[in-house]
C-alpha cells in the first residue's frame, strides 16, 4: 500500500496523472490508463497545462471527459489520443480562461 501511494504521489506531482478525493478516498480516473494499465503519456502535457492554470481535481476530470467548445464539441481525452497537440492547445486556452 505504501509503495502504491508513493507511486501515485510522484506521478501526481509530475503531472502525469491526477486524482480526486471522494468520501475520504482517493480516486484515480481509469481513462488515464491504456488497455494495458500503462499511464497514457499524451495526457501529461495536458495535465501540466491545466495545473499551471489552477485547474484541479474534479474540474480536471470534468473538462477532460466532457465535450468542449475549445475542441468544437469534442472530448479532450479522446482527442488527445488522435491529436495530442490539438488537445494540448485546447487545455492551454481553457486553463488561461480559468486563471483569468
How is this structure best described in words?
The chain is mostly helical. Helix content is 53%, strand content 6%. The protein has a two-stranded antiparallel sheet with strand order 1-2. A hairpin with a 2-residue loop joins strand 1 (20-22) and strand 2. The longest helix has 16 residues, at 84-99. The model has no long low-confidence stretch (mean pLDDT 96).
Chart the SSEs and their pairings.
Elements: H1 2-13, E1 20-22, E2 25-27, H2 44-52, H3 57-65, H4 76-82, H5 84-99
Antiparallel strand pairs: 1-2
Summarize the structure.
53% of the residues lie in helices and 6% in strands. The protein has 100 residues and is mainly α.
Number of helices: 5
Give the terminus-to-terminus CA distance: 39 Å
The pLDDT mean sits at 96
- Please state the oligomeric state of the protein chains shown: single chain
Characterize the biggest β-sheet. Answer: 2 strands, antiparallel
Rounded to the nearest angstrom, the radius of gyration is 13 Å
What is the ordering of alpha helices and beta strands? HEEHHHH
Attribute tags:
single chain; 100 residues; mainly alpha; two-stranded antiparallel ribbon; 5 helices; 53% helix; 6% strand; globular
Amino acid at each position: 500500500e505504501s509503495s502504491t501511494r508513493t507511486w501515485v504521489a510522484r506521478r501526481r506531482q509530475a503531472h502525469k496523472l491526477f486524482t480526486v478525493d471522494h468520501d475520504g478516498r482517493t480516486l484515480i480516473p481509469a481513462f488515464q490508463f491504456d488497455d494495458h494499465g500503462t499511464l497514457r503519456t499524451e495526457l501529461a502535457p495536458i495535465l501540466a497545462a491545466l495545473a499551471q492554470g489552477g485547474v484541479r481535481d474534479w474540474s480536471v476530470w470534468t473538462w477532460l471527459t466532457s465535450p468542449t467548445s475549445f475542441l468544437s464539441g469534442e472530448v479532450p481525452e479522446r482527442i488527445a489520443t488522435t491529436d495530442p497537440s490539438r488537445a494540448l492547445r485546447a487545455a492551454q486556452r481553457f486553463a488561461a480562461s480559468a486563471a483569468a
